[in-house]
Amino acid sequence: MQPLQKTFRKFKTLALGAALLTSLSAWADINVGIILSLSGPGASLGMPEEQILKLWPAELGGQKAKFTLLNDNSDTSTAAKNALRLITEDKVDLIIGSSLTPTSLAIVEAAGAEKVPVISLAGGGAIVLPQEGARKWAFKLSPTETISTTRVLEHMANDKLKTVATIGLANSYGDGFLKVVENLAPTKGIKLVASEKYNANDQSVTSQVLKIMAANPDAIYILSSGTPGALPQIELAQRGYKGRVYQTQGVANADYLRVGGKSVEGTYLTVAPVLVGDQLPDSSPIKKVAVDFLKKSDAAVGVQNRSLFGATAWDALLILDQATRNALKSGKPGTVEFRSAIRDSVEQLKGFVGSEGVYTMSPQDHNGVDERSQVMVKIENGKWVYQH
Question: For residue 306, is pLDDT > 90?
């Protein structure tokens, strides 16, 4: 059995900037499609995911597996085209991806129509909600916006902060979080005093930041992902904002720390426990799995390059390893029966401990995590420091 890093072939660039498929094994029983954002604004998420995927042996469920990897360039149209290619040309049994919420939504629509299960590595609740149509074939592993936002608002309330402003991406990820903030903030005694949006490719957010600072909020909650999440913080630091700043786990990677530098010091964010797995209390049910993953990850990419996005990819493979093992009892790879059995097996997951949470799926819940999937951390001296 050869590890994936020995079977990855060098990517060739297409005219649109998407990477040509990479065949991860010469022949396989189970055919897996992977779509990641390896370039564009989502690259700081997709590249760590790719690095971790290389650590997985070329099998699933005890059977040889062929992994075909495509780059969606952080673009929804490319993501949809990649999904159709994997389904119609490569005849995949399942798809992992993508790295971002908008590209994942495009994949789910294409795959669901053809009854191909998808495990997204992105965070937006819209990927699996409402559970109807194409979304019945979709699963995601990152926690809901409600779990993350509740933790942030309770942290604010405990410290007697009364007002909050938001600035977030103008896409399904940012909009999903904003809607939850609007609904939950009043229940915690916190007033939303301003809300601004920006695009992932924007080079400046000066006007948005000035409007937010004019509202003089006690805290600012940035609803972003990848390195674009550092842009508002850099502007806030330059403008002398002294209030508290929160981020979502969408920025929890080394590139965000590198780009943000001193401007992101003191930031609070809710993240999957694996990012600080070795700092977790021994009572955490996730600690053992998280530490086991970190040993593999740190050895491969270095402790300084820890990324919870790589851990999301690892959890997806752990879940699919079990799901395909079960599905092989019901159907043969390459058939509708096998694809349906994979979907059903993931949906029936109960108490599955991964590096990022404990997963219990159901027909109504294709996310499956609870409050244990998020911990509060603080950025201190360029490092993630566990709070509670």
Answer: no
